[in-house]
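User: Can you predict the 3D structure of DUF2911 domain-containing protein? Sequence below.
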Amino acid sequence: MKLKSILIISLIITFQDFAFSQQSYPSLSPKGIIEQGVGNTNLKIEYERPSARNRKVFGELVPWNEVWRTGAGYCTKISFDKNVAIGKQAIEAGTYSLLTIPNKEEWIVILNTDTSLYGAYDYNPDKDVARFVVYPQHSNRYYETLTIDVDLIPNNAMIYVSWENTSIAFAFETSTDAEIEDYINGQLLTGNIKDYDEMSNAIDYLYFQSKDFKKLEWLAKESIKLNKSEFAYRLLMETYERQHYYTKAIEAAKKAIETRKEKAEDNDKYLARDIKLWEKHLERIRTKANKKSS
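Assistant: Sure. Here are the predicted C-alpha cells for DUF2911 domain-containing protein:
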C-alpha cells in the first residue's frame, strides 16, 4: 500500500475516533411533550422548557407586556383532534402556537395558526384564532423549570402554565358531554336502541358524572328487563342511596344478592365473597335509614 493511502486511512480513523469521543451536552431547554386523552379528544402540547438558573424570570428574563413564546427556542405548540373551547372560545381541531403576553395583573393567552415561529419574532396578530385574559396566581411551590400540565376535570381539563412562583390556568372544554347526552336522549331514552351493553355504559356514565338520577333510574330498570344483572341493581341501589331513598336502595340491594345467587355456578368460588360484600352494602344503608328515622 502506498504511503499516501496509508496516511489518508490514518487520518480518517483519527477523525472518526475524535468525533465519537466528543461529550454530548444536554440542552439548556429540553423538549417537553404532553399527550393526554381528554374525554373524546386527544390533546398534545410540545414545548421547550427553560430553567430559571438563579435569574429573575418574569419582568426581566421574560419582559412584561411583550409577546412570549411560552417556552424557549421554537414556539410552544398545542394540538387537538376535535373542535374544543379554550378560554371559553370555540376553536377548530388543529395545531396552533400557544403564545402569551405576561403582565403583573393579567396575562393574554393567544392561539395563532403560525406554528413555525422561532421565539415570537415573526408573530403576526392577523393569524390569531383566539385571545383571552387570565389572571396570574402566586404559587407556594417554586418551579425551577417552565412547566405545563393538564389537570383532568371529567371529560374536560384545566391547562396550567407555571414558572418561578407564578402560575396561570385556562379551561380546555371538549364536546364529550354534549355528544353523549344527545346520544342518550335521542337513542336510548326514546327506545331507538335497546341494547344492554349500551345502556350499561350510559348508566355508568350518568352515575359517575352524578347527572340526572331520574334518567339513570329509568335506564337501569330498562337494562334489567334486557338482562337481569347485579350490576344494574348495584347502580340502582347506589342511585337511590345518593338521593336518600333508603327503602328503595335496600330493595335494590336485596335484588342484587338474589340475582347473584341465581347466576352462580356450582364451582363459583367468588359467590361467598360477593354476598358478604352485598351484605355490607345492606348494613350501611340500613344504618343510614335508621339515623334518618331517629
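The radius of gyration is 29 Å. The longest helix spans residues 271-293.
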